[in-house]
Write a structure and sequence with these properties.
about 270 residues; mainly alpha; peptidase activity; protease; cell membrane
């Protein structure tokens, strides 16, 4: 791979990211210890800030892989600082994914970094750049689910367990959606270098609407049920029960009354 050189300032971690990380740490601690008077608020802040951290790491993985593949411009663009405000569309990158989490409990692919593909040689490198982001979500999901499949939850407060289960659900949905071979998503980016120029030209006009197309399909009840059935299947095999998933989302939406079943489980 190409030896990458950037200025130190281009790689300095942004105070914005450190602030978000601090919120995740403090509210995670408050959820664990029960220090917060309103546990739902602490869970909301913990899951939301941790979700934004994962979005930053997703885009950092794209940028870092591009850097080592030959695009030395990613540093000057601020992509290596983990600052979400440096993304191509800050609103679409952060605000929209958070709104989707609040409204539907689904990990919307966020973030956007502009990679100068002309600087990169080799189809495998292009594919790896696209795959790096969702692979980060997979890794994040494994970290979140590790206490469940390692059976290491004895003594862990129920609120923290529920929050971790919901965060894992977001990571799994984000990974699966990102890996779909739909124009505009990372899954298509993995395949694109291997397609003929003619197919690329035919598909290119649909790229801006790929994500909208996917979510339109998820409004179809049968497809929605199949999608979340697959998510539930994966999480169950990682040790997270349907109750943990449900109560995590229930607790996250603190402005609603907590379901009696979740209150008993706590």
């Amino acid at each position: 791979m190409t030896t990458a050189t950037t200025r130190h300032s281009d790689r300095r971690i942004s105070p914005v990211f450190l602030g978000i990380l601090a919120v995740a740490a403090v509210t995670g601690w408050a959820t664990w210890t029960g220090y917060a008077q309103q546990p739902g608020v602490a869970v909301f802040l913990f899951v939301t800030s941790a979700w934004v951290v994962s979005l930053c790491l997703h885009e950092y993985a794209h940028a870092r892989t591009a850097l080592h593949s030959g695009d030395l411009t990613v540093g000057a663009k601020g992509y290596l600082t983990l600052n979400p405000l440096k993304y191509t569309h800050a609103l679409l990158s952060i605000v929209l994914p958070v709104l989707f989490v609040i409204m539907g409990g689904i990990g919307l692919p966020g973030g956007a970094v502009f990679i100068e593909r002309g600087r990169i040689q080799g189809r495998w490198r292009h594919s790896l750049i696209s795959a790096a982001g969702p692979l980060t979500n997979v890794l994040f999901a494994l970290v979140c689910t590790a206490p469940f499949w390692l059976h290491a939850l004895d003594g862990v407060p129920a609120d923290f367990r529920f929050a971790l289960a919901f965060l894992a659900l977001l990571q799994v949905t984000a990974a699966i959606l990102n890996f779909l071979p739909v124009p505009g998503l990372d899954g298509y980016g993995v395949l694109e270098p291997w397609l003929s120029p003619g197919i690329k030209r035919q598909v290119e006009p649909f790229a801006p609407f790929g994500l909208l197309f996917v979510f339109a399909l998820l409004w179809v009840p049968a497809l929605n049920g199949a999608f979340f059935g697959m998510i539930d299947f994966i999480l169950r095999h990682l040790g997270i029960s349907a109750l943990d998933q449900y109560c995590g989302y229930d607790l996250y939406r603190f402005w609603q009354d907590t379901h009696e079943l979740c209150s008993v489980s706590r």
